[in-house]
Amino acid sequence: MLVRIVGASNEIVRVRLADSAAQAVTATPDVEETWPLWSEPARRLVYQTSTDGVWHDLLLWDPEQRATIAIAGSPRRDEQWPAWSPRRPELVFAFRGAAPPSGLMLADVPSRTQRLLAVSGKRNFFLRPSFAPDGESVVAQRRRANARGSSLWRIDPGSAPKPLTQDPTWYDMKPAYTRDGGEILFSRRPAAGGASDILAIPAAGGTPRTLVSTPESNDHTARPSPRRDEIVFVSDRSGSSALYLAPLAGGAARPLTADPTRQYFAPNWSPDGERVAAIATPDHAGQGKLSERERLAGMHVVVLDREGRTLFDAPGFMPDWMPPWREP
Question: Is residue 81 assigned to a domain?
């Protein structure tokens, strides 16, 4: 599943890796669709829609019925960053607007009900929530409007949100639980600007440990394998943005990509931990500033195995994994 530019619009397309056959999910020139995410427990796809680029709604797509419904549908409430529970047909998403002014909402798919999980405030807001492997807690990034820093918070149903990091001199982002739920990986850079590192903090709270740090290079977007004690991450240590694999306990990293004509971003493990989907963009150095539409049009979705062999390469961005369809 990926997003592809069709005409002047972003549309969601389902692509089968075996033969590169494509199946349109959306065809709405007046609506921008982004961030498709599949849930096996719910057997649904969730994605964001927007008509103005400012306010977003979340929709659910049923591949069996090929039908779409709104999961929230609250007017003048911006709904973004959905994340599925790994155990139940429910998802968490961040919102701003309406009442309360911002926070995290938990949505149950079968009952089509919502429950407020956490409130942030008028000047604070959550983003990038992520479930623990057991589905019992959520970690999210929290920012204050017009402030440089960013912190990480753990949210357990029925309890007040708990800060895991809250030093305003740091910008902490992109949290993700390890497969055993014992630690949370995240990217950290100085709030005033500078290179980023990858750290891990105990899920119950404590002192972070540095997992990946390369002098004067950006190491970020670590994603733990769902099957092995290893991570895939992004680094520009070689001069261009590339993907690397490293042990979760720390140690030497090995490159998955080595193409200086491309920049690689946003790695995403397959459920079996054998492949990685990522976004690849041409290296536009020296070609001037591109518009957002030109930049998106040049993106490709690339699928690699753990040895770095390319299994799939096609135009698109924001990939996620879901089962292939069967021909009638």
Answer: yes
Among 155, 44, 50, 29, residue whose Cα is nearest residue 89:
44
SS3 323: coil
The domain containing residue 54 runs over which residues? 38-122
Distance separating alpha carbons of residues 220 and 173, to the nearest angstrom? 9
Write the CA distances from 299 to 4, 30, 293, integer angstroms.
9, 22, 10
Does residue 191 lie within any of the structural domains?
no
Helix, strand, coil in percent for the chain, rounding step 5: 0, 50, 45
Q: How many CB atoms lie within 10 A of CB 313?
A: 12
Query: What pLDDT sits at residue 290?
Result: 72
How many other CB atoms sit within 10 Å of the CB of residue 73? Answer: 11
Sort 237 into a burial class: Cβ within 10 Å, 0-12 / 13-18 / 19+. Answer: middle
Within-domain flag for 95: yes
Decide: 129 and 137 in contact? Cβ < 8 Å. Answer: no
Rounded CA-CA distance 213/129 in Å is 24
Per run of 10 residues, the mean pLDDT along the chain (length 328 residues) is 91 93 93 96 96 88 90 78 97 91 94 92 92 97 88 93 95 97 97 96 96 95 97 95 95 93 96 97 69 83 96 96 82
Cis status of the peptide bond prior to 100, with omega within 30 of 0: yes
Instruction: State both tokens at 131.
Output: 């479930």
Amino acid at 205: G
What are 177's strand-pairing partners? 184
Tally the domains of the chain: 1
Q: Is residue 263 part of a domain?
A: no
